[in-house]
Design a protein that fits this description.
Oligomer: single chain
CATH class of the largest domain: Alpha Beta
Shape: globular
CATH superfamily of the largest domain: Glycogen Phosphorylase B
Strand order of the largest sheet: 3-4-5-2-1-6-7-11-12
Number of helices: 19
Strand content: 15-25%
Structural class: alpha/beta
Helix content: 25-40%
Number of strands: 18
CATH topology of the largest domain: Rossmann fold
Bound molecules: adenosine-5'-diphosphate
Length: 481
């Protein structure tokens, strides 16, 4: 089985969020189950810097885009082959999708149109490579046009999988983009990629791909409903039989408290002493009061409406009264960034806020916090709640999407039978959040019960092996069809 995995970001070459974690880890896991998986992505400056053994495959002048090259290289660490599309005018800048003021790049349609076009070309019958994929695996809107390009190119197109990592980002552009990218006018139809008079890259993927997947079973069901479907629920429900929810894994080597180079001290389920060292050192690093007993609540996320940090902000005064400390890392909407800055200024020593993106600090918060906060309004899969369980930091989550599928609520029964790993809110509002955290903080004071909860999460298998086997099942199915 040969699979070309097309993506707009992949850790450690380029990352803005969870898509990069998946694209950095899943192809390696696919190789472990015998798939020849290779990644295709743009040659951003960071990717050129970090990929290994880069060589040029060919150079070409495209009528729609001009001078473009294809490079070949490998991921550092696992050696997964990667093809990088080099186009300085499109990708030779800082910021994957947006400029420094969080404004979308005005030429995103052409930038990701090129990525989609290349994916279809390299996976299709006219590929110039000696690698002939059986399946093209596309991810999110940035690669959504690829299944359409394939469909209009050949009567018997290469089978495609389109994975939805987040339905909220839809790649919507003016209709003239279609012509600029050389797609036929008939594709601009309700049975095609037209969406309320505009062109939607996401809808193209959802409509033209042979099979759809999303990143958790619960989210797969949710997106077929009005509450979570973001306008695509009709199409998704129509394709319900060709939509599979496959839970993401995590990179168990990179996220391992025994060997994590970002931490102050190693620790494990068998030896938890190092966890306290991490907490005290994190408190010192962030200017929080040194206090091993104060429950330290950690949060790392994009500061957007999705992640529910506005609800946490509302709950802060009550949580401070209950004795909590906060370590918050994130960036995003200005109003949320400012609200957190204000809270940090009002509660020095109790609330530490770092606005920005900081991978190393993210690891130290996962390790140093006692409780991890992730009350998302919707969450396709979510990774941080899995990292936190692995790091012995029970998460408090909202019962949606992948959060519902990966965290087992600390009911008395689940605590007794060793299954509990965190706290799951049925509803997301200030009262429910304070209530759940109140209960979590009571349990936190019962050292033995709390350590049991930590260990339940730490010893869970969140690895990729099972998911990779499920993806292989999907690939086989669409090749047979
Ligand atoms: P999403 O993809 O919706 O942002 P996920 O939980 O699936 O949410 O994945 C987010 C990824 O990005 C995780 O690896 C998380 O640790 C990381 N991340 C998010 N914000 C930051 C930040 N400010 N600094 C460092 N890492 C971050």
């Amino acid at each position: 089985m040969k699979v070309l995995f097309a993506t707009s970001e992949a850790h450690p070459l380029a990352k803005t969020g969870g898509l990069a974690d998946v694209s950095g880890a899943l192809p390696a896991a696919l190789q472990d189950v015998g798939v020849d998986a290779r990644v295709l992505m743009p040659a951003y400056p960071s990717a050129l810097e970090k990929a290994e053994n880069i060589s040029r495959v060919f150079r070409i002048k495209l009528p729609e885009h001009g001078e473009t090259s294809l490079l070949r290289g490998a991921f550092p660490g696992n050696g997964v082959p990667v093809y990088l599309i080099e186009h300085d005018g499109y990708y030779g800048r800082k910021g994957l999708y947006q400029d420094e003021s969080a404004r979308d790049w005005p030429d995103n349609a052409m930038r990701f149109g090129l990525l989609s076009q290349f994916a279809a070309w390299l996976a299709g019958p006219k590929t110039p490579l000696d690698f002939k994929p059986d399946v093209l695996h596309c991810n999110d809107w940035q690669t959504g046009l690829a299944p359409a390009f394939l469909r209009y190119e050949s009567a018997k197109p290469t089978p495609t999988v389109f994975t939805v990592h987040n339905l909220a980002y839809q790649g919507i552009f003016p209709p003239d983009v279609l012509k600029k990218l050389g797609l036929p006018p008939e594709s601009f139809s309700i049975d095609g990629m037209e969406y309320y008079g505009k062109l939607s890259f996401l809808k193209a993927g959802l409509y033209y791909a042979s099979h759809l997947t999303t990143v958790s079973p619960t989210y797969a069901g949710e997106i077929q409903t009005e509450a979570f479907g973001m306008g695509m629920q009709g199409l998704l429900a129509t394709r319900g039989n060709e939509l599979t929810g496959i839970l993401n894994g995590i990179d168990m080597r990179e996220w391992n408290p025994v060997s994590d180079p970002h931490l102050y001290a190693p620790y494990s389920a068998d030896n938890l002493a190092g966890k306290t060292t991490n907490k005290l050192s994190l408190q010192a690093e962030l200017g929080l009061q040194s206090d091993a007993k104060a429950p330290l609540l950690g949060m790392v996320s994009r500061l957007t409406h999705q992640k529910g940090s506005d609800v946490v902000i509302e709950a802060v005064p009550q949580l401070i009264k209950l004795g909590a400390q906060f370590a918050v890392l994130g960036s995003g909407e200005t109003r949320l960034e400012n609200a957190w800055r204000k809270l940090a200024a009002a509660h020095p020593g109790r609330i530490a806020v770092k606005i920005g993106y900081n991978e190393s600090l993210c690891h130290r918060i996962e390790a140093g916090a006692d409780i991890f906060l992730m009350p998302s309004r919707f969450e396709p899969c979510g990774l941080n709640q899995m990292y936190s369980q692995r790091y012995g930091t029970p998460p408090v989550v909202h019962k949606v999407g992948g959060l519902a599928d990966t965290v087992t609520h600390a009911t008395l029964e689940n605590l007794a039978n060793g299954k509990a790993t965190g706290f799951v809110l049925d509803r997301l509002d200030r009262t429910s959040l304070v209530d759940a955290l109140g209960r979590a903080m009571i349990l936190f004071r019962h050292k033995l019960a709390w350590q049991k909860l930590m260990r339940n999460g730490m010893t869970r298998d969140f690895g990729w092996a099972q998911s990779a086997r499920q993806y292989l099942g999907v690939y086989k199915k669409i090749c047979r069809a």
